[in-house]
Amino acid sequence: MALTARSTRSKLRQSGLSVQINEEHVSIVDLLEASNLDISSSDSGLELWDLQFKPEENEKKKLFSQGLYKPGSGEICAEYITVSASSVLNHVYYAYPSVKDPGIEEALLLPEKPKEYEDDGQELYLELCKEANQAPIRIFHKGLLTDTIDLRYYGIHPGGMRAMSLALSRNRNVKTLDLTSNFLNDLDACYHLGQTFSFSNAIKRLILKQCNIRQAGIRPLVVYFYTRNFDLLDLSENILCDEGIEYVIEQLNRGAVFNRLILRRNFLTSACLRPLATALECHDKIKHLDLSWNNFVAPYGPKALFRVLEESEVIAELDMSWTNLKLSTELKHLFNIRTLKKLNLSHNALTSASARVIARNLHISQGLDVLDLSANPFTPSDALFLLSKMKLMKVKLRELRLDDISVSKEFPADLKEILQLHFRRNTIVTYGHVLRNYTLPEKDIKILIMKRLVHTTKKKASKNGVDVLLYLLEKNRTEKYLDLAEFNRCMKANDTQLKDEFLEQMYRSFQGIKNDKGAKSANLDVIVDYIHRLWPDKKLPPTPPPTPPPPPPPPKKKGKKLGKKK
């Protein structure tokens, strides 16, 4: 462009035109206006002007006519930066679009767009805590990026549940939410937590144990459960009662899926088991059902439940412990469940009839691995009868628990034999206290008889000076058998009465005999032998040597009788 301006100025000088041209900044429009003025006042002919200013076709125009070039690229030549806006707009080769609205109309006329947050919910959680003037929970904030949020025993305030629920609404990371022993007794807290499950998040395991939800809070909590598929739902120890559990059953009827449903210690009665059985009959999805620590005294509820579970094709674990069950024949339905792996009936009121029914149906359940019957009022014979079924190969049970059930001495011995069988090597059997687990030493009845004889005659012996043991020892010197009738008369003479049963026992124990008249005698040699064993110091006084006979008197001498002298 600068070269074009210089050639134009030289041509104007040759033509004699006097035009005042600014050397620094020249506009093509100014040049054209100046040339027109000078030409009109000049005497030069038109032929010279035509020769000097014959227009040349521009290369860009050629390309533009061919569709190979488009003006208005947006790049400005450095020489034309200082050119006025009006001149630039009228320039032949440049076209600049008008300036667009930078956002003033949108800011003034339209409402402010809501702020978009990441799906993990971390930024949203902090913003909501700031809005509610609450301190954020660091464990929860960090857990939004993991698969588990563990807030057990954290003491979360019910007012903080709204921020947590909204943060979890779009989260795709958290799969396990554990809120054990927190305060969800506020209705708003249960409502906001329930609204979380109306969104598409990844929570599969929800643990709300001991949160004091009660009947009023369970309804807004489970309102969207019919759209979810839970691996675990723990609602234990929440005082739901029969009225509260109806809302959970309603969600089951609407299509909710709970692979593991735990309803422990919720003050449930047999009245809620019938609607639960009806729901399971049409929606058989529960694999683990825990109804322990409830009150099922009335038999109609468990009966209905067991009959429905008999047809189940998915349930693997059933916990009915601590429920005051008193059934017997209805228990056979549980052993017809083909998929059942673990059955817990411990701490109930099952009777001996129940034990017999269970024992007779153990071989039917081929898939049952663990059977817990602990702390039931079974007798030792019931426990032994249950154990006897473990000798059968068709019984596939691997673990039999009989804790806190008293057993007899034969139970451990039989168990030892059973565990030595080749198909019972990995079997586990537990039991309670072993009754009479001791062996009495074999007492010699002869020792007891001798001690009783001494004890009976001891008091009288100190008065009359008669020692029965010395009497027997003395008697044995001359006799081999002791006449019991004569012995009794001798004792009576010394104010000691022996009972007939005692004399009969002496006769039987000490190899007694009878004479022709029927009088009974005891072997004195055996009696003396036991006296020497028990009282080795008891001996007869030494017998004095026999007194020698007095010497015979001297013989009288024979002689003459001396007469008296007269």
Protein described:
- Pfam families: LRR_6.
- Residues 537-566 are annotated as: Disordered.
- Residues 541-554 have a biased composition (Pro residues).
- InterPro entries: Leu-rich_rpt, LRR-containing, LRR_dom_sf.
- The protein has 566 residues and is of the alpha/beta class.
- It folds into four domains: 2-71, no CATH class; 117-267, Ribonuclease Inhibitor (Leucine-rich repeat, LRR (right-handed beta-alpha superhelix), Alpha-Beta Horseshoe); 291-437, Ribonuclease Inhibitor (Leucine-rich repeat, LRR (right-handed beta-alpha superhelix)); 445-534, Recoverin, domain 1 (Orthogonal Bundle), CATH 1.10.238.
- It is built from 22 helices and 16 strands.
- The strands form three sheets. Strands 1-2-3-5-7-8-9-10-11-12-13 form an eleven-stranded parallel β-sheet. A three-stranded antiparallel β-sheet has the order 14-16-15.
- Helix 10 packs parallel to helix 11 (214-221).
Helices and strands in order:
Elements: H1 2-14, H2 28-41, H3 46-52, H4 59-65, H5 85-89, H6 104-109, H7 122-131, H8 138-143, E1 148-150, H9 161-168, E2 176-178, H10 187-196, E3 205-207, H11 214-221, E4 229-230, E5 232-234, H12 241-254, E6 257-258, E7 260-262, H13 273-282, E8 288-290, H14 300-309, E9 317-319, E10 342-344, H15 352-360, E11 370-372, H16 380-388, E12 399-402, H17 410-419, E13 428-431, H18 445-464, H19 468-478, E14 481-483, H20 484-493, H21 500-509, E15 513-514, E16 520-523, H22 524-534
Parallel strand pairs: 1-2, 2-3, 3-5, 4-6, 5-7, 7-8, 8-9, 9-10, 10-11, 11-12, 12-13
Antiparallel strand pairs: 14-16, 15-16
Helix pairs in contact: 7-9, 9-10, 10-11, 11-12, 12-13, 13-14, 15-16, 16-17, 19-22
